[in-house]
Amino acid sequence: MSELFDRIDALVASRSPLPPPAERKRLRQAHGLTLDEVASALDVRRATVSGWEAGKTEPRPPERDAYARMLKQLAELYPAPTNSAAPEQDTVVPETFTSEPAPAREVRTAAAPVSEAAATSATENTQTSAPVAPAPAAASRPARTARPSSASRRPVARKAAPAATAAGGTDPRFENGPLAVVDVDADGQVLAYCTGGLVLEVPAKSIPSLVEWTLKEAKLGAPKLSGPGKDADPLLVLTEAALERFGLPVALTDEERHAGRIPEGHKVIKQLVRAEWKLTKRGFGPWARIYRPAQGSERACVQLCIPSWNALDTRHWGEARQLPPAELARVLGMYASRVMTPRGSTAVTGLELMTALHPPTRASEPDADGKRHSEHNPGSLGKDPVDCAPCEAPDGHPLLKELPRFHVRGPAEKLFEEAYDWARPMTDAECLRRHLVGIDVNMAFAAGANGLNVGLGAPTHVTNPVFDPKLPGSWLVDLSHVDLSKVKVGKDKWADLDANLLPSPFTPKGERPEGPAWYATPTVAYAVELGYDVAPVEAYVRYENGRYLDGWYNRLRDAFLATMADLGVDADMAPADFLAAMDGYRSRDPELAIVVSAVKATVKGGLGKLRERPRGEGWRPGEPWRALSRPTWRPDIRAAVISRTRINLHRKIVKHAAFTGQYPVAVLSDCVVYAANGTSPLDFLPCRDGKPLPGGFKLGINPGLVKHEGTQSVLWGEEVRERFNAPELNLARYIKDGTVTDVDNGE
Question: What is the value of pTM for the model shown?
Fold first, then answer.
């Protein structure tokens, strides 16, 4: 009988009555709940709850009964307004109470025209007024009055709570999140769209007063990522409407875009100067930083992001700049919470993340007088730049100014560790197969950084050294004797391979080296792993070293995996399920797909910044450029990561060839193309007892595992090579969609 009752209860729960979609949203917002909080409580995705509130979908058991229970309790706390049309036109904001109870009032008010000084004064008065805090959930509430409806439907908005207000479980200084998207609605009210659906009214009438409001009232920012580090400065994203409101151009002229900033004589910059605010050397550009010199430990700095000035590069952020303010706040907020608050482009942010996780200095132990001093933070790159080794220096570096002007350095003079760009003609047997299948390594360069020992200090020059695979550095050694036709693939286990069908692991183009050349430690270590002796002639080694990038890798890996899980791709899926989940994952939530792209761009861009080249500014070869003054200008670290990434890929290729007899047709960076009889990676990736080949390619979303990049026909590959008269055209470059726009020039 009890089972019968349980079935009846479940049947009733499956039809639990729910209020209309607009009322569901009103009740949630009235209690100050975010979509993320409701989704977490019900163990569903944020987009699922959003769909329920929009009326696009309806909850199903078992979540429906729990959702109905929550809404019923909220309805008792927040009765519907007497004006029944109000929920359909606008949303009632939760009431706030001062120290003395007051009748219900309209939180958001129309802004009357006031002077800049008056606006600043009003901001200060608000900041020093009596503390305001949301009433407890169980408190009785006075009757509500609906806000008057307007022609355009506005989001819920409330004024920023004073600094004295604490939020449960969050840093009270940053309770409104790391950033806000500033926009102007149809009625002329300036609004700041924060993460979690919160919208704040902004009283500022100018950029200086906007900065003041941000620092004093907005409660934006993020806690530091490392003990000795600094809290993240608040980020304001200005829409086109906000730019017009604050007197800034909606778009930059060609001259301004080339300079990367607006002119120094612009009226907004003059306003900042009068208010005693400063700009960094990069001026007022797409990622402007406005600050005052720090007073003790207190920072006064606000970062601006201006999408219409191309702050959000479409190569990395897709169509993010076209999103409505609330959706843009969600995308950038997700990135900020999982990676860090953007500090510029994804490349700049990737580099800043390294520093944030390993600050250059820390506070010392108290001295005899009880005072602490700044000292070097172990495991960091320090606060001062170090010179690279001559072989690690890119062309034009001051270390090379004595070289003849048009001298071209060869492998024995220059460290050249780059990603693969290799292809070969197909064999007759491969031409008889039907398909070309591309597989791509997930977060390949991040995986290459994981656990990698890199130099932390300056290099030491040594001659005729004994190679040490644990010692990071650059080694001049002859690896031309390494024969890929016979290599070690395990302890005391050798394999006979067709070396003509394999790329060399020692050069980006896959060509066998012809003599001594400079290599990073992982490349030389791989030659030893393959079973060959090495005898370096000289080296630049770094005795001060450590796994500097481990924390960086872990944070980016976690950000990537968490976002992919939100998109329905989990780390523990079976191969077939993984391939099915990856098919069309971007369309499930295009906004989260933007975050995935940005995270991956942060990896590659951050590593690229380690060897940033001159960017105009009248630079001439032999002269220093701005990036050289950074402790994070470290071409040796970049070379080591790329070296290890290329070696990791080659190791998998060799394992695959030794076990299956299959060889790659083309390799480009982290993409490998094989000829196969089927269209799926499952048609050629081997398994032992149902498990992937140890040390070989494995399907999965984790960094270092592979996904399906694309499939084309063998006839397609032969046709495009014949069309461009290029028998070694790198098909990996075009395998994704089959579109070939020009001859492959290796760029």
Answer: 0.78
